[in-house]
């Protein structure tokens, strides 16, 4: 037991164990994301440096996502980036697309997502319905900065969605 | 009664609690390690159904899935991949990548009955997937190109049945 080796080894061991636990909790239960971009103003504001708590429990066996939830998903055109938008319609719903003046049905296994700030948001109005398999979690709370801590409300646009 | 209390007091509760806690923590660590490997490095999947004949059996093969190369974007056309079905997020399916973004893919619309073919260009960030058995497969020919983000991993090795143990070669679906 000479030298600092036993100490160093136990320190490394604790580091590895901690990383494993943190990664598992991030994957299965909850993680924290930093919001960038202005497409979700005023719900989430990147100018204020909002950090949001993402719950992953809703991705379990029964997809527990409802209309109006703020969701995190992989971008359908760039798999490395994550996007935050509001889930507007679920499979089978009919939705009125504002720009195109048409009513379309969401196909099986897909959903419709839109930003809260329609002027700058790049969402389903440009790329259409996205597969539910891209979903990575649901934003439940804002956790930072302190003056904005609070839950994120469920909200729906009026009269545009006909629920199945 | 007082003897019983004295005996209870004599039990080293503190040591027992400490030991139990460290054991539980060790088990939790092991579970976390399994999760991390299974979710980020390498996983196993049971493949069933006719859509990947003859590369994979009808009755069910266990295959090893490499999750790292899909995450790093190293999936190329010809690879067999495991992906989340775009029509049912709870279901994972195995298909072969036929075209990456920007590729023009020509396919038979209804292979059993006619030889009408169609050509599409795969949009940005999407891939075109098809089963090897084009007569019994529900794939991009029905639901169109799928986002790359749905790909979970690349299948690189068959594990079961043992007599067929070995790598699954990338090949063209044509």
UniProtKB/TrEMBL annotation, chain A:
<feature type="signal peptide">
    <location>
        <begin position="1"/>
        <end position="17"/>
    </location>
</feature>
<dbReference type="GO" id="GO:0006465">
    <property type="term" value="P:signal peptide processing"/>
</dbReference>
<dbReference type="GO" id="GO:0042720">
    <property type="term" value="C:mitochondrial inner membrane peptidase complex"/>
</dbReference>
<protein>
    <recommendedName>
        <fullName>Mitochondrial inner membrane protease subunit 2</fullName>
    </recommendedName>
</protein>
<keyword id="KW-0378">Hydrolase</keyword>
<keyword id="KW-0496">Mitochondrion</keyword>
<keyword id="KW-0732">Signal</keyword>
<dbReference type="InterPro" id="IPR037730">
    <property type="entry name" value="IMP2"/>
</dbReference>
<keyword id="KW-0645">Protease</keyword>
<feature type="active site">
    <location>
        <position position="85"/>
    </location>
</feature>
<feature type="domain" description="Peptidase S26">
    <location>
        <begin position="10"/>
        <end position="98"/>
    </location>
</feature>
<feature type="domain" description="Peptidase S26">
    <location>
        <begin position="99"/>
        <end position="144"/>
    </location>
</feature>
<feature type="active site">
    <location>
        <position position="39"/>
    </location>
</feature>
<keyword id="KW-1133">Transmembrane helix</keyword>
<dbReference type="InterPro" id="IPR000223">
    <property type="entry name" value="Pept_S26A_signal_pept_1"/>
</dbReference>
<keyword id="KW-0999">Mitochondrion inner membrane</keyword>
<dbReference type="InterPro" id="IPR036286">
    <property type="entry name" value="LexA/Signal_pep-like_sf"/>
</dbReference>
<keyword id="KW-0472">Membrane</keyword>
<dbReference type="Pfam" id="PF10502">
    <property type="entry name" value="Peptidase_S26"/>
</dbReference>
<comment type="similarity">
    <text>Belongs to the peptidase S26 family. IMP2 subfamily.</text>
</comment>
<dbReference type="GO" id="GO:0004252">
    <property type="term" value="F:serine-type endopeptidase activity"/>
</dbReference>
<dbReference type="GO" id="GO:0004175">
    <property type="term" value="F:endopeptidase activity"/>
</dbReference>
TrEMBL record, chain B:
<dbReference type="InterPro" id="IPR052064">
    <property type="entry name" value="Mito_IMP1_subunit"/>
</dbReference>
<feature type="domain" description="Peptidase S26">
    <location>
        <begin position="117"/>
        <end position="160"/>
    </location>
</feature>
<comment type="function">
    <text>Catalyzes the removal of transit peptides required for the targeting of proteins from the mitochondrial matrix, across the inner membrane, into the inter-membrane space.</text>
</comment>
<dbReference type="InterPro" id="IPR036286">
    <property type="entry name" value="LexA/Signal_pep-like_sf"/>
</dbReference>
<dbReference type="GO" id="GO:0006465">
    <property type="term" value="P:signal peptide processing"/>
</dbReference>
<feature type="domain" description="Peptidase S26">
    <location>
        <begin position="25"/>
        <end position="107"/>
    </location>
</feature>
<dbReference type="Pfam" id="PF10502">
    <property type="entry name" value="Peptidase_S26"/>
</dbReference>
<dbReference type="InterPro" id="IPR000223">
    <property type="entry name" value="Pept_S26A_signal_pept_1"/>
</dbReference>
<dbReference type="GO" id="GO:0004252">
    <property type="term" value="F:serine-type endopeptidase activity"/>
</dbReference>
<comment type="subunit">
    <text>Heterodimer of 2 subunits, IMP1A/B and IMP12.</text>
</comment>
<dbReference type="GO" id="GO:0042720">
    <property type="term" value="C:mitochondrial inner membrane peptidase complex"/>
</dbReference>
<keyword id="KW-0472">Membrane</keyword>
<feature type="active site">
    <location>
        <position position="95"/>
    </location>
</feature>
<keyword id="KW-0999">Mitochondrion inner membrane</keyword>
<protein>
    <submittedName>
        <fullName>Os11g0620000 protein</fullName>
    </submittedName>
</protein>
<comment type="similarity">
    <text>Belongs to the peptidase S26 family. IMP1 subfamily.</text>
</comment>
<feature type="active site">
    <location>
        <position position="51"/>
    </location>
</feature>
<keyword id="KW-0378">Hydrolase</keyword>
<keyword id="KW-0496">Mitochondrion</keyword>
<dbReference type="InterPro" id="IPR019533">
    <property type="entry name" value="Peptidase_S26"/>
</dbReference>
<dbReference type="GO" id="GO:0006627">
    <property type="term" value="P:protein processing involved in protein targeting to mitochondrion"/>
</dbReference>
């Amino acid at each position: 037991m000479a030298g600092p080796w036993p100490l160093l080894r136990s320190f490394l061991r604790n580091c590895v164990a901690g990383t494993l636990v943190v990664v598992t909790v991030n994957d299965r239960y909850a993680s924290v994301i930093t919001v960038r971009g202005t497409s979700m103003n005023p719900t989430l504001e990147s100018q204020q440096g909002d950090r949001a708590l993402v719950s992953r429990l809703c991705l379990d066996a029964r997809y527990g996502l409802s209309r109006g939830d703020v969701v995190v998903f992989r971008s359908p055109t760039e798999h490395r980036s994550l996007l935050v938008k509001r889930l507007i319609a679920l499979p089978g719903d009919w939705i009125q697309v504002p720009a195109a003046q048409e009513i379309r049905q969401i196909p099986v296994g897909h959903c419709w997502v839109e930003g809260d700030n329609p002027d700058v948001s790049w969402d389903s109005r440009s790329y259409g319905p996205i597969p539910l398999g891209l979903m990575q979690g649901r934003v439940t709370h804002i956790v930072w900065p302190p003056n904005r801590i609070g839950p994120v409300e469920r909200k729906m646009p009026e009269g545009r969605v006909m629920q199945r | 009664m007082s003897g019983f209390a004295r005996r209870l007091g004599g039990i080293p509760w503190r040591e027992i609690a400490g030991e139990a806690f460290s054991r539980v923590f060790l088990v939790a660590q092991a579970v976390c390690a399994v999760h991390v490997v299974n979710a980020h490095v390498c996983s196993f999947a049971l493949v069933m159904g006719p859509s990947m004949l003859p590369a994979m059996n009808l009755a069910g093969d266990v295959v090893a899935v490499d999750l790292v190369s899909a995450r790093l974007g190293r999936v190329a056309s010809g690879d067999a991949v495991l992906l989340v079905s775009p029509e049912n997020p709870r279901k994972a399916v195995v298909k072969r990548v036929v075209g990456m973004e920007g590729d023009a893919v020509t396919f038979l619309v209804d292979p059993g009955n006619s030889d009408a073919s169609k050509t599409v260009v795969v949009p940005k960030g999407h891939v075109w997937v098809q089963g090897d058995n084009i007569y019994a497969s529900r794939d991009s020919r029905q639901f169109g190109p799928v986002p790359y983000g749905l790909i979970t991993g690349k299948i690189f090795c068959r594990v079961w049945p043992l007599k067929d143990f070995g790598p699954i070669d990338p090949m063209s679906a044509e």
